[in-house]
Structure formats: C-alpha cells, structure tokens
Amino acid sequence: MMLLPAVVLLLTIVILPFALSIYFSFTDQRLTPRPIPTRIVGLTNFARMFADPLFWKALANTFVFAILVTPFQLALSLAVAMILNAAIPFRAFFRTVAIIPLLLPMTVVAAIWAVMYRIPNGPLNSVVQMFAGSSVYVDWLGSSSTALLSIVLLSAWATFPYQMLIYLAGLQEIPQDLYEAATLDGAKRWQRFRYVTWPGLRNVNIFQLIITTIGALKLFTQVDMLTKGGPNGATTTVIHYMYQQGFLSQKVGYASAVAVFFFLVVCTIALIQRVVLRNEEGA
Amino acid sequence: MAKISQRTGRGGGSLALACAGVMTLGVLLPLLMMVTISLNPDEQDIMVSIGALRSFIPEVVSLQNYFEVWADPAHPFLRYLGNTLLITGLTLLFSILFNSMAAFVLAQGTLRIRGPLMILILASLAIPAESLVLPQLIMAGWAGIIDTYQVQILPGVANAMSIFLFYQFFTRLPKELIEAARIDGFSFFQIFRYIALPLSKPVVSAIAILQFLEIWNAYLWPVMVTRGPEHRPLSVAMSAYFSSNLQSWGNIMAFAVSMAIPAILFFLVVQKQFIASVTSTGVKG
C-alpha cells in the first residue's frame, strides 16, 4: 500500500501530538512520570498563564519583534533584489554573496554576532566610540532597551536572502514592456517603481508578508543562545517561554496551554492577513 | 518552476553598483571577522583587538584553533558532522520515498478517501512544528527513543509540505501519458516508479534542498531530544560549544568557520537548483 507509510507517520507524528497538546493543556502532565497520576485540571493552566506577567512580556516581545523585523527585512530584501536584478558588473558574484547568510545555521550566525555586539570593544562598539568618544559603549544584548533590537538586526541579516530570492523571481515575472511603456510615457525611476514594480509584486508581497510574520513569531534559537530571554525578560518570546516552562521546568501541561495559545495566534494572524489582503484586492 | 535568469534587468548604473558594494560589505565584514579571529591563536590578543581593523584583516595565519576544535574530546566535531550528515541523508531518503508515493496515490489514484486525506494534509500544514514539540517529546519517551537518530529523523519524514509539493506536480502530469503506460501493461506502482518519479526530479531537488536547510538550522527539537555528543547534530553542537568555551573566541570562530565551509561548498555545487527550490515555494508556476 503506497499511501500507508506517509499517512501513518503524519497521523502519529503530527495529528496525534496535536490532539495530545490540546488534552495536556487541560491537565497537570509533567515531563517525567510521577507516582501520582496525571489529573484533569480544567482551565487552570490557561488562567495561570493569563495571570503570569512573564507570559504577557513574552507575547508582547514576540509581537514587537514580528512588527519590527517583518517590514525591515522585507524592505531590505526588496532593495537587494532590485539591485541584483539591475544590469551591474559582477552580478553573479554579488548574488552569491547575498545568499551566504542563508547558508549559515542560525547558531553560527548567533556566534558571529556575539562577537559583533561584544562589550566594551567589539566592532559595533568601535563604531559607536568613533562618534561618541572612547569611554562610551552600548551593551547591545545586555541592556533591556537594546537587546530585542539587536536580535532584530541579526535575524534580518541571517534570513533576508530567502525573501530576496523570492523577490528576485517576482521581479523577473514583471513583463519588461511595461517598463518600456512607462519610460516612454515619461515615468521617472520612482514612478516606475510605484506604478509598475509595486503592483507587479502584489501576490509576491502577500506571500512574503505571511511567511515572514509567521517565521518571526517562532523566534527562539538566537534568543536561547545569546540572551536566554534576558535581561529581565526583555527578549523572552512565546516559544522560549514554552520551552522554559515545559522542558526546563518540566511543566508539560502548563506549557501545552502556551502551545495551544501559540497555535491559535499563528492561525488568527494568517487568517487576518489573508482576509485583509484579499479584500484590498477586491476594492 | 521559477527560474532566476541571467536576463538583464533595468536601471544598472553606478548607483546600483554602489548599493551592491554596500550590501557586500554588510554581508562580508562579519564573515571576514569570523575568519580572521579563527586564524589568530592568541586569545588575549583577540580580546584586545576585537573591534580593531586587525580583527578583520589577518595578521597571523595559524590553524591552531582549528586543530584544537577538531581534536576537542568534549566536542567531537567530526562525530557531530557525521550525525548531521546521517540525519539529513536518512530524512531525505524516507521523506522523498514515502511522500512521493502517497502524493501519487492522492493525485492519480481512485481511492474513495482521497478528499478527507487531502483535508488532513492541508490542515496539518497549518500547524507550526514548534507547538507540537512537547507532546512529541512525551511520545518519544513512551517509545524509548530519546537521544537516538530515529527521533531526529521521524519529524522530518512526516512532512505534509513534501506531500503537497509532490501532489501539485503529479496532478499536472498529462493524462495521455498515464493512459498510454496503463495500456502498455504498467501497473499503478510501475507508472509511479518508472514514469512519474523520474519526471519529478525538480520537486525532488526542491524538497531535498529545503529539508537540508531545515535540518541544518534545526535547534529546538534536537536540543530537547539529544543528551550528549553521541547523537547531537552540528547546529546544536555550535551552541553547546559556544556556551562551554565562552571567551575563547578564536576557537568559537574556528568552529563556526568549520561549519560554514561545507554549507557554502554545497551551495556552490547545487547553486542553480538551490535558487530554483527557494523561489519555487514562493512563486507559482
């Protein structure tokens, strides 16, 4: 039976855990087996979650991160894609360079940026000192006002090539004669972008917005490696909070409530984006 | 499948070239620093000069950090590399085999339950993998496969995206082709094995490359299911090495370079398919 292996695996490794996570979220399930059996606790986990300031902090950080990184990263990717779509010398070289960050695992990127952000004399602080004097430095990852922004910058650096490649393919789908016609009509560079390129990238933009936002909501690796959610919860995220509660503190039942909530948030945002963007298209 | 052609776009010119230069600096400066620091055996010198020009342009070229990294008994680099290769290879093998078979039945078979199965597959596409890790961990405990290769391979094989990409391709196969093969006496499986699967090479390479990137970046799941170097993949090893050798920047950067080089080499070999795979998920056609 050709269908069997894939369907069985999908049922046991995706669908069953999904059902279990909903079930666990109503219980006091622990990670390691205990002598006392697991009990159903009703909505206690959810009530406790909504009463925990650190959970709200994690949720807020996750949203702030997504709201900051998505436009920044998409603008960066589009700009690079447009440069690499233009007729410039050594284009093949530039394209290869622009893809390199995507090939480095996030843990390698985090290690590199740990050096970039070093206090008091790392490369970025050397730049700060050039302008602000030699005794000044920014504690990029260690101060609660800059830590999340520092994570935004390194995340955009690490993953922009992905969106850049999709934009590059999108730019090449736009018929060349549209640009020629616009130029004949006297359209300037900005007008060609506004009236030809931007509408031409409509569908690409919808796709990019959804995948970039959802990717941003899953922020975990770089935070876990560089700040462990600190300082003072300034970089904790929903996934990091779930990991801490469910894995490190072994409260699987409680963390499952977080996981179910996270699933609902991701679905809601994807749906809202889809509906809003589709309506706009109809208008 | 979308291709990025070498076709000349518009608006070349010195402004675009200057911007390309800035982009190159932005990407290459951190990498240059990684390489330069990895070549400097003097940790104290690294600390003093970490923001200076000479942490970007090598003054000494020594492989001492590399030898230390590769020979560290607490962090067996080659073992980690082998683990990653094994996990990647087996995940790809089973993912492509199982998911292409299932997709072919869904696309070309006459099974009654095709509709509900497609709904199941599309629905599971919407579930973020991160929200499943805790019940998966408990189940792995029940099955007694914590800290093994299997536990790291299975979630990649159960892959709705992979079924979906094959499904899209197989539904577009020309009817006449399938019909002709059937008349020639091919069984359903033979049509899959000798006609559909060989034709789906672009999908196979897209899935291979996308899953490679996924495994190469995997962190949350392997952190939870591995307990030591024996089955740990490179991505997690980098983080473990980073935390246990804090401040030995020369060695940390040598570890990072040792990981970056195989990935960049792999990319240079499969560059064309790589770009096509990434863009195929984004642009229809």
CATH architecture of chain A: Orthogonal Bundle
Largest interchain contact: A-B, 102 and 107 residues
Main pleated sheet of chain A = none
Helix content bin of chain B? over 70%
CATH topology value of chain A:
MetI-like fold
Number of domains of chain B: 2
- Give the tally of β-strands of chain A: 0
Please sum up the structure shown:
Chain A has 283 residues and is mainly α. Chain A has helices at residues 4-24, 44-51, 53-85, 91-103, 106-116, 123-132, 147-173, 176-184, 189-200, 202-217, 221-226, 238-248, 252-282.
Distinctive features:
heterodimer, A: 283 residues, mainly alpha, 73% helix, B: 285 residues, MetI-like fold, globular
Can you characterise this structure?
- The complex is a heterodimer of chains A (283) and B (285).
- Chain A has one domain: MetI-like (MetI-like fold), CATH 1.10.3720.10.
- Chain A is built from 13 helices and no strands.
- With 283 residues, chain A is an all-alpha fold.
- By secondary structure, chain B is mainly alpha-helical.
- Chain B has 2 domains: 14-66, no CATH class; 77-280, MetI-like (MetI-like fold), CATH 1.10.3720.10.
- Helices cover 71% and strands 0% of the residues of chain B.
- Chain B has 14 helices and no strands.
- Chain B has helices spanning 14-38, 43-49, 64-71, 77-108, 114-125, 133-143, 150-157, 160-171, 175-183, 188-199, 201-217, 220-225, 234-244, 249-280.
- In chain B, α4 packs across α8, α11 runs antiparallel to α14 and α13 (234-244) packs antiparallel against α14.
- The N and C termini of chain B lie close together (5 Å).
- The model of chain B has no long low-confidence stretch (mean pLDDT 88).
- At the A-B interface, α1, α3, α4, α5 and α6 of A face α1, α4, α5, α6 and α7 of B.
